[in-house]
Structures are given as structure tokens and as C-alpha cells.
Design goal:
Layout lengths: L1 E4 L5 E4 L5 E3 L11 E3 L27 H11 L6 H7 L2 H4 L3 E6 L5 H16 L2 E6 L2 H10 L1 H7 L2 E5 L16 E6 H13 L6 E6 L10 H15 L4 E6 L5 H8 L1 E6 L5 E8 L2 E5 L5 E6 L11 H6 L7 E5 L2 H14 L2 H5 L2 H14 L6 H8 L2 E4 L5 H13 L4 E5 L12 E4 L3 E2 L2 E2 L2 H8 L10 E7 L4 H10 L13 H10 L5 H9 L2 H5 L4 H14 L15 H9 L6 H13 L7 H8 L10 H10 L2 H4 L5 H14 L5 H18 L4 H8 L3 H22 L11 H10 L7 H4 L6 H7 L7 H5 L3 H7 L6 H28 L7
Parallel strand pairs: 2-4, 5-10, 5-11, 6-8, 6-9, 7-8, 9-10, 12-21, 15-17, 15-18, 16-17, 18-21
Antiparallel strand pairs: 1-11, 2-3, 12-13, 13-14, 19-20
Helix pairs in contact: 7-8, 8-18, 13-15, 18-21, 18-22, 19-21, 22-30, 24-28, 25-27, 30-31, 35-36
Protein name: Helicase POLQ-like
Catalytic activity: ATP + H2O = ADP + phosphate + H(+)
Pfam families: DEAD, Helicase_C, HTH_61
Length: 805
């Protein structure tokens, strides 16, 4: 069923007139008169070259010129009927908020893109697109490159250490910010403080069902509530495939719900149990289809048979419940691969392996290279991002036909396939939930390639539990997680100017937490305010108005959690009090390691690397004799490491990486016996954390000694410790080895790379650079150059000058 559902219809007083209108604001009480935001109809900007009311495209506020160009860029002929209906919805055009639910692969991304283009061209406003994972942001940046080229739209990445806070003040406001949840929150704080939030007219959120997840969910709820109250005339469109309590989410958004249940490609669902494949129909009828014929002791579930029977004509994505299971299954498939499959697109696969070797300095795992040569691969968080990107590109191109991926990465894997096999109904050690099943099953069937998608769950002894998940279990409701970060949310609200207790209570009442727990909100807010005053994040209120203390301002600008800030400050004071001056890189790195880091420690390696540190750096661990005794005891007895020990082990990993450069990633993984993907993710995370600590130290006098040191550390980490190639290392996709080659060629500056063609760049790098990576590098170079120019314009404007001086 397709259609939109309004919340309770109320009599509304518009700010501009006394006329009452119907609105999508969902509240209780039949006779309330509630002021709402001004209507923002898409009448077109006078300066828009694309808007022409007489040149209609069939979509309100969108010219034929714009829509035709968009279709050409995305290589589509027509929109789905439901997409056109939604985009022409009167309430949407009037600027009302919406919750859009549609199945995975149903076309939500196209909706988001058209909405953002319409905002940019018709209202001359920027838009923010929020995604839950860094990997998804990076993927979208490259996908949006085509929009940037075709429509001259500025794409800005805010993920990990990317994205300037505060943002560059542009001469126009036509930016498309692509952000993680955490970076979007900082961006909104900064824009509000600069009184520039009004330039962002649209907030689009994908995977909004993650609002029910611990940690990330609270951040997402804070982000939505902050934008809604700081910019009441802005519009919010939240999208998801799996939400059980859409009415509560729509009420939280103060908007409408539009649902589309149709799927472009039919999905057939099966279970495999006791070597029998059984169809699960939409009517919940079980229809035995066939028995598996092969008898392989190494594959009692018949997964190899299920995978091989449709390749290479079709593709297969297999979800496993651990990294080891992915690699082991890939090894099994490698040993069972038929000769015809090995020969299929052999030359393409040889080229892909050579490209992988070039991007990893020939240090990629031999098992992955062997698998790629026969048309298969594994994909999990233990791989470097470039390895995962090579696998994804090869799978999309059809050069490889089978990918074994961890089920925990289902939300971050954009690899649709004809057949999805869920090898184990467990995600990690827990039975999968309905949402997790739908996330994995949703990858089956590629629009434009497949006429049907198939999802097969290997159930065996869990058959009844799996059938219950598929047939009976409802889509779970999203429960607010804001209570765990209520104090952080209140600090942000005070920083945004909502300083009165009554205002704070009313805002928290309007959150999902307030919608689901209306009776306890006032008490919770009062308790949080008292705790924040006691912990010195808030000043003692004057005439009922609260204000941020130095710690509060530090939290507001850095995004650090108020729960960890006292620990950070105490940690710094303790070390500083012991005469540790934080003058060495290791000492600064050590304070940037998160307090929740998790890593398995090899105590022989710990001792070896500890003894290689300078004497002053070893003091970070404590008295040498005591530390030696503790390490020897650990080597002898083992046991779970303490948080302090895991932080110091992580600091040694990152310190060695900084010392020898990013080319030592694989060497570091071997030395410290950890996954190379973990090292890369930790390195990126610490760059981001160093930035946050730098912003925090600017506002907190206790931390002032770090103000100049942390920015220097970030620059050093980004350039991989080599000043000669520092400029080139600011470009996404360029490795240290590539930079070493480029710096000796005519492409030795960012500007030169931005002007290069794909083939020219590939040629100078020995022809072993993936075309889409070359495209990414050139696009990134253009963005770096653009930002540098705009920063200079910003400096000139601040001096009261102009480009004509």
C-alpha cells in the first residue's frame, strides 16, 4: 500500500496571518491553537536558472530542464509513480516534515537527491544529508560527484576528520553537506552560533530507524530535535525501511508519514533446513521446492551448491556471523570453484588484483588476492577501506560473482545481488532480529538487472525460530535512547540559546523520549540540570536562566561527552602533575586514545614495544620497575587487560604508524597482531578525536597547554609524517606510495591533480590505478582547491575587503 498518513489534524495559527490551516503537526487536545512555522512553498528563486513555472516537468517546483538533466545523470527514464506522488505532495511542498518508509532498494535515495536539488535551486538554501556510517558517507560523496559536475553543486564531506568546524563562510549557500550523525550535530551547533543555520533549509536523514540503537540513536535524536527547534522554518525528511512505530516517529517529527510497500524487484524468501529448500510465501505458506543434491562433508548445509548454481550469470551475497567465518567460507568456495568460473572474465580479475596490489603496496592478504582471481571475495571490518572498495567495485562490475560479508556490516554494504544467503541466523552470537533480517534480505534483487531477488536463510536446528522471525515477528519499534545522553543534549540546547528551564522542559517533551515517556520528562530535566550545575558544566542559574561554564562551552564546541570530560581532564592533570609535559608525539597521542577502546594485547609485543620507547615516553606508563613487573606478570598469568593497558597499547600502535608512515599499516598489523582494518579505523578515529580535544582545549584553561600541540599532531598524522608529500596527502585516495611517485612528476601539487584526466593520472601511476579511484582523487583535489580558495575569500571578507581590491 502506498500513501501518506497525517497525524492528528489541528487548528493552527500561522505566524504570518490569522488564518487557520490544516497542518501535519501531531499533538494532543482537540482545541489547542499552536503556532507553527511559516509555510515554505517551492515557488522558485528569482535567480534560479532551472525554475520556470511554464516549463513544468510533472514535478512541482522542478523545471523540465532540471529533471531531464537529472535523469540523464542517473541514467533513468522515468520516476516510479509513488516517487512522483510523494514529491508532488502538497504538505511536502509546503515545507512540512515527513517520515518516508519504503523497502530497501525501493528508491529512497532518488527522493533524497531530488529534494536536495529542489532546495538548492528553488530556495537557494543548503541541505544536510545525514548517514549513520563513515563508509556510507564516503560512498555517497563519490556518488554525488555526478551531481556536482552536472549542476555545479558544492558537495562537502563531514565524516571522521573531514569537515571544517566552523564551516567556511561561502559567498553563496548552495552546499550539500554529507555528514555522519556526530559531525552533523557539530555542524548545526557551529552554524547556529554563527547565526547561519537559516541558510540550511533541509535536513534529510537516512536509516532513521537507528534512532533506537544505543549510543548512535541518542545522537540522532539530539540532532533532529536541535535542528527542529533552532530552525523551525527548516524542513526534515527522515527515511527508513524498517520502523515499527511510525506513528510515534511522525509525532516526534511533527510531520506526516508516507509509506510505500511496493518493491521494484520481487523478493522471494526461502529457508534451507536439513538440505531441503523451502519457499516461504507472502501468505506465510511453506512450499518445499527441492532437495540439495551435493554431499560435501566440508559443507553440510549446502551453501556452496546454493552459491555456485546461479553464477556467473547472477551474483550472490553470503552473510556470515564472524570475520573468520567469512574467510573460511571463501577458502572453501575457492577450493570448489569450477574451471568455467575460474576462466570467466579472467583478464578483468587479473587487472583487479594488480590494482589491489598497487593500492596496498602489495601487502593485501594473499587469501583475498587468490579469491579475487577466481571471482569471489570476502568483505569485513578487518580489511582496509581500500580493500573493501576494490571488492565492492569488482562485485558491482560483475567481475566477481560471490562476496562473503559479515552480517554486522549489512547496513553498510551497498552490494545488491540476485541471491542473498544468510549462512547463519545469528549476528555475532545473538539470533538475528526482524530488522537485521530485513536489512540483509533487502540486498536481494538489483533494480535494472534482476527480475527477482532471492533470500535463503540456512536455518537447520533454528528452523522454527527463523520462521517466526520471517512470518510472525513485527518490525520492532524504535525506543528512544536519549535518556542516556540527556545531559549532553541539554548542554547543547543551552549553548544554542535555550537557557530557560521551561523552554528546556518543553523541548525535551517534544523529543521521541518525551513522546514515549511524557509523565517523567519534567523530573528528568530538573535532575539533569541539577547534575550539570553540580559537575560545573552549567553556571548557577540567574533569574531562571542557565549558562555554559568553561567545561560546558568546551563540550558544546568539541562534541565530547560530558561523561568522559572529567576523566579526560583528570587524566591530563594527573600526568601533568607528575611532570609529564606532553612534549613528545607519543605523550600527545596517548591522551587522544578513547577511553572505550578495545583491543586484544599480545604481552610479548607490549613489552618489546614498550622498551623501544624513549625514556620520557615510558614514564607515561608509570615507574619503570613497577611497569616491568606488571608486564612480566601479564606474560606469565595472562588475564583481561585494564582500560589503561589497552589505551597504552593502542597509543604504541598509532605512534609506530606515525613514525614509519601509512605504508607500515600491514607491518603494524603483523607486529601488534591486530587486524589492519582496526588500525586504519583507530587511526582515523584518533585524528577526529585530536580535533575534538583541540577545540575543547581552546575553551578550558586546564587544557591550554594542548592548544597548539593537538593541531600540529593532526597535521602530522594526516601527512603521514612526511612534509614533502603533506599537500598531496590531503587528497582522498592518495596513499603515501602514490604521493611519493606524484611528487616527482608534473602532478606534484593539488592544483595539477585537479586538472589531470583520469587516464593521465593512471598513466603516471603505472596504469594500475582503478578508474573510479582516479575519479575520486581528481574530485577530491578539486574540493581541496575549492576550499582553499574559499578560505582565502573568507579571510579577505573578514578584513573588510573584496575580490576587487
Amino acid at each position: 500500500m502506498t500513501g501518506w498518513t497525517p497525524p492528528n489534524r489541528k487548528r493552527i495559527l500561522c505566524e504570518r496571518t490569522e488564518t487557520s490551516v490544516d497542518s501535519g503537526i501531531g499533538v494532543t487536545g482537540e482545541d489547542e491553537e499552536i503556532p507553527t512555522k511559516m509555510q515554505k512553498k517551492y515557488m522558485g528563486s528569482p535567480t534560479s536558472i532551472y525554475f520556470n513555472s511554464e516549463n513544468t516537468s510533472g514535478l512541482e517546483g522542478l523545471s523540465r530542464t532540471l529533471l531531464d538533466k537529472y535523469k540523464a545523470v542517473r541514467k533513468i527514464t522515468e520516476l516510479y509513480p509513488w516517487q512522483q506522488e510523494f514529491l508532488n505532495n502538497k504538505e511536502l511542498l509546503n515545507g512540512e516534515n515527513f517520515l518516508l518508509t519504503a523497502q530497501t532498494g525501493g528508491g529512497k535515495t532518488l527522493i533524497a537527491e531530488i529534494l536536495m536539488l529542489r532546495e538548492i535551486f528553488n530556495r537557494n538554501c543548503s541541505a544536510i544529508f545525514v548517514l549513520p556510517l563513515v563508509a556510507l558517507v564516503q560512498e555517497k560523496i563519490l556518488a554525488f560527484k555526478a551531481l556536482a559536475d552536472a549542476f555545479n553543486v558544492r558537495i562537502e564531506e563531514y565524516a571522521a576528520h573531514k569537515g571544517r568546524i566552523p564551516p567556511i563562510k561561502r559567498q553563496d549557500h548552495r552546499s550539500l553537506f554529507v555528514c555522519t550523525i556526530e559531525k552533523a550535530s557539530l555542524l548545526i551547533n557551529s552554524l547556529m552560533e554563527q547565526k547561519q543555520l537559516k541558510t540550511v533549509g533541509l535536513l534529510v536523514l537516512d536509516e532513521v530507524h537507528m534512532i533506537g540503537e544505543s549510543g548512535r540513536g541518542a545522537n540522532l535524536e539530539c540532532l533532529i530535535a536541535k535542528y527542529a527547534h533552532a530552525h523551525p522554518r527548516g524542513q526534515i525528511v527522515a527515511m527508513s525501511a524498517t520502523i515499527g512505530n511510525s506513528d510515534e516517529l511522525a509525532k516526534f517529527l511533527k510531520g506526516y508519514h508516507y509509506h510505500n510497500s511496493s518493491r521494484p524487484v520481487e523478493l522471494k524468501q526461502y529457508i534451507a533446513a536439513d538440505r531441503q529448500v523451502i519457499r516461504v510465501t507472502e501468505q506465510a505458506i511453506l512450499e518445499p521446492e527441492r532437495n540439495l543434491v551435493t554431499r560435501d562433508p566440508a559443507d553440510p548445509d549446502g551453501v556452496v551448491e546454493l552459491a555456485l548454481e546461479i553464477i556467473p550469470k547472477h551474483s550472490v551475497l553470503i552473510f556470515c556471523n564472524s570475520r573468520a567465518a567469512c574467510e573460511n567460507l571463501c577458502t572453501l568456495l575457492f577450493s570448489r570453484m569450477p574451471k568455467a568460473m575460474i576462466e570467466h572474465r579472467r583478464d578483468d580479475r587479473v587487472r583487479i588484483v594488480e590494482e589491489l596490489k598497487a593500492e596496498t603496496d602489495n601487502q593485501a592478504a594473499q587469501g583475498l588476492k587468490n579469491a579475487l582471481r577466481v571471482g569471489i571475495a570476502y568483505h569485513h571490518a578487518g580489511l582496509m577501506s581500500c580493500e573493501r572498495q576494490v571488492v565492492e567495485a569488482a562485485f558491482h562490475s560483475g567481475a566477481i560473482s560471490i562476496v562473503c560479508a559479515t552480517s554486522t556490516l549489512a547496513a553498510g554494504v551497498n552490494m545488491p545481488a540476485r541471491r542473498v544467503i544468510i549462512r547463519s541466523p545469528k549476528v555475532g552470537i545473538q539470533l538475528m532480529t526482524k530488522s537485521q533480517f530485513l536489512q540483509m534480505a533487502g540486498r536481494a534483487g538489483r533494480a535494472g538487472f534482476d527480475d527477482v531477488g532471492e533470500c535463503i536463510v540456512v536455518a537447520n536446528e533454528a528452523r522454527n525460530s527463523v520462521l517466526k522471525i520471517i512470518i510472525e515477528d513485527p518490525i520492532p519499534s524504535c525506543q528512544s535512547q536519549l535518556a542516556e545522553q540527556l545531559e549532553a543534549f541539554i548542554l547543547d540546547l543551552v549553548g544554542l540559546g535555550f537557557t530557560n528551564k521551561e523552554n528546556l522542559v518543553n523541548i525535551v517533551k517534544s523529543t521521541l523520549l518525551g513522546v514515549q515517556n511524557p509523565e517523567s520528562i519534567t523530573e528528568s530535566v530538573e535532575a539533569s540540570l541539577a547534575a550539570l550545575v553540580e559537575s560545573r558544566f552549567l553556571l548557577i542559574p540567574t533569574e531562571g536562566e542557565y549558562g555554559l561554564s568553561l567545561y560546558g562551552r568546551g563540550k558544546f564546541h568539541s562534541g565530547l561527552s560530558p561523561k568522559e570530560i572529567p576523566e579526560i581532564v583528570d587524566h591530563f592533570k594527573d600526568h601533568f602533575g607528575r611532570g609529564l609535559a606532553f612534549k613528545t608525539r607519543f605523550s600527545i597521542i596517548s591522551i587522544c586514545v578513547p577511553f572505550d577502546v578495545r583491543v586484544a594485547i599480545d604481552w610479548d609485543v607490549f613489552r618489546e614495544q614498550y622498551l623501544k620507547l624513549e625514556t620520557c615516553d615510558r614514564r607515561m606508563f608509570g615507574e619503570h620497575n613497577v611497569v616491568e613487573a606488571q608486564i612480566l606478570k601479564r606474560q606469565r598469568d595472562g588475564g583481561s587487560p585494564t582500560m589503561a593497558e589497552m589505551r597504552l597499547y593502542t597509543a604504541m600502535v598509532v605512534h609506530r604508524l606515525c613514525k614509519y608512515g601509512m605504508t607500515s599499516l600491514y607491518d603494524n598489523a603483523r607486529v601488534f597482531k591486530v587486524a589492519v582494518g582496526w588500525i586504519q579505523q583507530t587511526y582515523e578515529s584518533m585524528c577526529h578525536r585530536a580535533q575534538a580535544l583541540g577545540r575543547f582545549s581552546e575553551h578550558v584553561s586546564d587544557m591550554w597547554p594542548l592548544r597548539g600541540l593537538l593541531p600540529e599532531l593532526v597535521n602530522y598524522m594526516r601527512s603521514a609524517g612526511n612534509e614533502e608529500i603533506a599537500q598531496l596527502m590531503s587528497v582522498d585516495g592518495i596513499t603515501r606510495t602514490m604521493a611519493g611517485i606524484l611528487v616527482k612528476s608534473k602532478y606534484n601539487t593539488v592544483g595539477a591533480i585537479s586538472r589531470a584526466s583520469i587516464e593521465e593520472l593512471r598513466e603516471v601511476l603505472n596504469g594500475k590505478l582503478r578508474k573510479n579511484l582516479a575519479e575520486k582523487i581528481i574530485f577530491s583535489a578539486k574540493c581541496v582547491l575549492r576550499d582553499a580558495i574559499d578560505e582565502k575569500k573568507e579571510e579577505i571578507a573578514a578584513l573588510g575587503g573584496g575580490l576587487g581590491i
